[in-house]
Amino acid sequence: MNTPQTNPLLDIQGLPRFAEIRPEHVTPAVDVLLAQARAAVDKAADPSTPPTWANILDAVEDGTEGLGRAWEIVGHLNAVADTPALRAAYGDNLPRVTEFSASVGQNLALFEKYKAIAAGQEFADLSPARKKILDNEMRGFRLGGAELPEDQKPRFADIQEAQADLAKRFSDHVLDATNKFSLVVTDEQDLAGLPDDDKAAARAAAQRDGLDGWKFTLHFPSYFPVLQYADNRALRETLYRANVTRASELGPQFGNGEADWDNTEIVVEQLALRREEAHMLGFKNYAEVSLEPKMAESPAQVLEFLEDLARRARPYAEQDWAELQAFAAESLGIEKLQPWDTTYASEKLRQQRYDFSESEVRQYFPLPKVLDGLFRVAGTLFGVTIRPQDAETWHPDVRFFRIERDGELVAQFYIDLFAREGKRGGAWMDSARTRKRLRNGTLQTPVAYLVCNFPAPVGDKPALLPHDDVITLFHEFGHGLHHMLTQVEDAGVAGINGVEWDAVELPSQFMENFCWEWDVLEHMTAHVETGAPLPRALFDKMLAARNFQSGLMMLRQLVFSDFDMHLHYDFDPHGNESVLSLSQRINDRLHVTPQADFSRWPNTFSHIFAGGYAAGYYSYKWAEVLSADVYAAFEEAAKVSGSVLDTATGARYRDEILAVGGSREAMASFIAFRGRAPEVDALLRHSGMSAS
């Protein structure tokens, strides 16, 4: 029997039954749900079905929701609880789901039904949200190849399937390469400079494996403190080389990787397929395809935006680099900074200049206190209450919460914060369920996944977060609020759905700003030993150091963005220049620090090769302009109310940006909140750069 009772992936009535889901459930569930989805699409596309909203859009959404929901769960588990059996089940079914999705996008008969609705009498009575959905869907058909000649559609479908497979393989290789490497240090003297908390975590990791000494991996909470604090230069070099050569031909040499995990050819294949897809659709390049649903108007506009920021940031970056080189030579005896020295030297310079260390700071940020502070900010600004709730999860570390307003359920979310083997690196928010009004009149509330990779607790101490991790948590929760506080009742444009990609980062980056406000931090800090809040004097030092090396950091992000855009705009994957060579050339042109000859960082650039950001990485900087300008409204309000936690401004932001989701253009939402078009001044000011 393959029923919702026996197969939890077929049950979409409540929250996912994570405790019951097994890899063997995947294929039988996909069998049933694919059949349902195909039947719904076929009926909607049938010439005898009248082209009305209810007959077409509602029917297709209802018929495909089960497949979408189940596949989201499988994809989520593949990212946070990887096992060989689950990976195999995911890989076996990915082509089937991709093929179905491609077939819908190419279904000309169905597309004609959408066009008939847009041209029919019903259109005038549709809500603005539904008009936006219809417009988005019709664009999706055009980009999905619906208007291609019939003899080209099979090739277009093959391209989609191949890209999905390549993205999965790329991600698998990065995860495998990350998991495979470990380094056990047996002499504690080799760990001089490393904070006690990080040594304790490494000791615990070794003990879990039955080893003596201290175990280090390429998971960020493990390797980064070594680069930041370890006096042992050889140790820093070993971990650095292993990290930047993951999933490359150098992986076996430096990171104990496998030759089969080399992503070099996958990258070339991805780029070639994207180029072919763009040409089939009548675009000059894939960057133009990518920008179709975004705010930016053209690749040239994006490149000029990036170049302009680079010009503004470069003098500050040059000063940062000159100061760091001089400091390293004079104070550390490092005459020539190597890549594995820069993070270490930067931390030493910061300690000398501002008289504090990140290790000192994180003692004041135990995770429970940080969460309480985060929830206080959200509660104050947006009029909600956040409470823990019991639910089935995929790992004992995962917690579940509900958001209420005036005692009524608004949304729920899972939060999975600690790094572990079998879990993809990075941090992200994803949808577990979208808000919508069901056909029976009841309201389906949204559910979100919030995932990070923080250092896990050691012993009886709570997890202690570096301030950067606190910022990451606020960032992802900002995405979550965008998803969860929507008031739109049509799923296609509720929350983050339908929001232009280069505006999606606005709510996340906006939330980061509160991590720099005293009246926020004083309520979300407590020393792990004494319980004392963060001292104001230490906060003032942190604030003074906020823009430490901001020029270097901005150029680093601009290199990533420019590289991504050129890859998809004017780069020939089968030309004379390699992807690696392009990355080096762009780094040499835009940045002031050299790129190591052995660095293979494009091979782990999951955002653009496995994460949906192809020709879209610029959106982080684009949205940063928007978010800084939005936050400036709270700074202006604080001059009157005395606090950036201004409830009136928070309510206006909630109503004009979060609540409307993708139901109107992002620029319209920005202007509705700010009263004008965005300006770059606030971003430059927040980055310690003049607006001139």
Name the descriptors.
single chain; 692 residues; alpha+beta; Neurolysin, domain 3; 4 domains; five-stranded mixed β-sheet; two-stranded antiparallel sheet; 27 helices; 7% strand
Task: Describe the protein's architecture and organization.
The protein is α+β, with helices and mostly antiparallel strands. It folds into four domains: 8-147, Endopeptidase. Chain P, domain 1 (Glutathione S-transferase Yfyf (Class Pi), Chain A, domain 2); 181-261, no CATH class; 264-356 and 549-617, Neurolysin, domain 3, CATH 1.10.1370; 367-534, Neurolysin, domain 3, CATH 1.10.1370. The chain has 27 helices and nine strands. The protein has helices at 26-45, 54-80, 84-105, 108-119, 128-143, 153-180, 196-208, 220-229, 233-244, 251-255, 264-280, 286-291, 299-331, 339-354, 358-362, 367-382, 467-484, 506-512, 518-521, 536-544, 550-569, 579-590, 606-609, 619-641, 647-658, 666-674, 681-686; strands at 182-185, 214-217, 385-388, 399-405, 408-418, 428-433, 436-437, 443-444, 447-454. The termini are far apart. The model has no long low-confidence stretch (mean pLDDT 97).
